[in-house]
Specification:
Distance between the termini: 42 Å
Radius of gyration: 20 Å
Number of helices: 3
Oligomer: single chain
Order of helices and strands: HHHEEEEEEEEEEEEEE
Strand content: 35-45%
Structural class: alpha+beta
Number of strands: 14
C-alpha cells in the first residue's frame, strides 16, 4: 500500500511539472508545452537549449575568424583553420583603424559540424591585432540557422591571454529566433568563454571551451527562464552537446538543476526538480 501511494505521488508530481520524457518532440508538442506559464517542461527546455546552441555557434565563428588573423600576425605564418567551410565567402574592408569582416554563407552553407546556415555575419574590430584586449561587434544580415531565422547581435571583449595564459572572450549577446511554424523566442546572455584546448592547432576538432555566466531565455508568451552556470560548461567542438557542467534554471521562483554529465558526448542530462527528484532528459539540439 505504501509503495502504491509513493508511485501515485510520483506520477502526480511529474504531471504537475509537465515532464515530457521522449527522445524527440515535434513542433506541436513543443508549442503546447510553450503555452504554459508556470511549468518547466522538457519540450521547452529543448527550445531553450537550441537557442543557446545558436548563440554558441555565432560566438565560435567570431572566435575562429579573429584567431586566424591573430595567429597569422603572431609568427604563425599562413596559419588557417579547417573549421570554416569552402562555401563561405569572406570579405575584408579596412577603414582608418577599423576592420570589417563579412562572412557570407549565401543561400545555404553547411558547417563542418553539420549545421546549415545562410545569410551574413558581420564582425568589426580595431586593426591593432597585437593588443591583448579588443572589442568585437557581431551583427547579422538575413541570417538563418538550421531554418531558424535569427536577428540580433553581440559584443565580444576578447583577451588574447588571460590569467591562465588562455584566450578568453566575454560575450554579451541578444538574439531572437523564429522557428518554422512561427514559434519565437529570445535569448540574452553574458557568458565568459575560455579557450582551454586546441588554440592554434589548425584543426577545430580539438578545440575546447569552458563557459561560465548567465542567460535569460524568453518564450513566445513572454515567460522568462534565467539560467546560471553553477559548474563550468565544457564545450568540445567535436560534439554538438555540452559534455559536462551544470546549470541552475529558474522559472516563476522555482529552480531546477540541469547536469550535463561527466564528459560523454551524448544528448543526456539529469534534471533535478525543486523537490529533489531527478529525471533523465534527452536534449534535442536540432537532432
Amino acid at each position: 500500500m505504501k509503495k502504491t501511494k509513493r508511485v501515485i505521488k510520483r506520477k502526480m508530481w511529474a504531471i504537475a511539472l509537465g515532464v515530457l520524457i521522449t527522445s524527440c518532440s515535434n513542433d506541436s508538442d513543443a508549442t503546447e508545452e510553450a503555452s504554459s506559464s508556470d511549468l518547466i517542461s522538457v519540450a521547452e527546455l529543448n527550445y531553450s537549449d537550441e537557442s543557446e546552441q545558436i548563440s554558441e555557434e555565432l560566438s565560435e565563428m567570431a572566435e575562429e575568424i579573429y584567431s586566424i588573423e591573430e595567429l597569422q600576425q603572431n609568427a604563425k605564418g599562413d596559419y588557417n583553420s579547417d573549421y570554416l567551410p569552402e562555401c563561405l565567402v569572406i570579405s575584408k574592408v579596412l577603414e582608418e583603424n577599423m576592420v570589417t569582416k563579412t562572412l557570407d554563407f549565401g543561400d545555404g552553407c553547411e558547417l563542418r559540424n553539420g549545421n546549415t546556415v545562410s545569410g551574413k555575419v558581420v564582425l568589426r574590430y580595431q586593426k591593432d591585432i597585437v593588443a591583448n584586449q579588443k572589442t568585437i561587434t557581431l551583427s547579422l544580415e538575413d541570417y538563418t540557422f538550421n531554418a531558424v531565422v535569427i536577428t540580433g547581435g553581440a559584443t565580444i571583449v576578447r583577451t588574447r591571454s588571460n590569467a591562465n595564459g588562455n584566450p578568453q572572450s566575454v560575450v554579451n549577446s541578444a538574439y531572437e529566433g523564429t522557428w518554422p511554424g512561427g514559434l519565437t523566442s529570445s535569448f540574452e546572455g553574458n557568458r565568459t568563454r575560455e579557450w582551454v584546448e586546441g588554440y592554434g592547432s589548425g584543426t577545430w576538432q580539438d578545440n575546447v571551451f569552458l563557459v561560465t555566466g548567465s542567460t535569460i531565455y524568453t518564450n513566445r508568451l513572454g515567460v522568462i527562464w534565467t539560467k546560471e552556470v553553477v559548474t563550468a560548461l565544457r564545450r568540445e567542438m567535436a560534439c554538438r552537446f555540452i559534455v559536462s557542467g551544470a546549470l541552475a534554471i529558474t522559472r516563476n521562483d522555482a529552480t531546477a538543476t540541469l547536469d550535463f554529465g561527466g564528459g560523454e558526448c551524448d544528448n543526456k542530462g539529469e534534471l533535478t526538480w525543486p523537490n529533489g527528484e531527478v529525471t533523465e532528459v534527452n536534449l534535442r539540439r536540432f537532432r
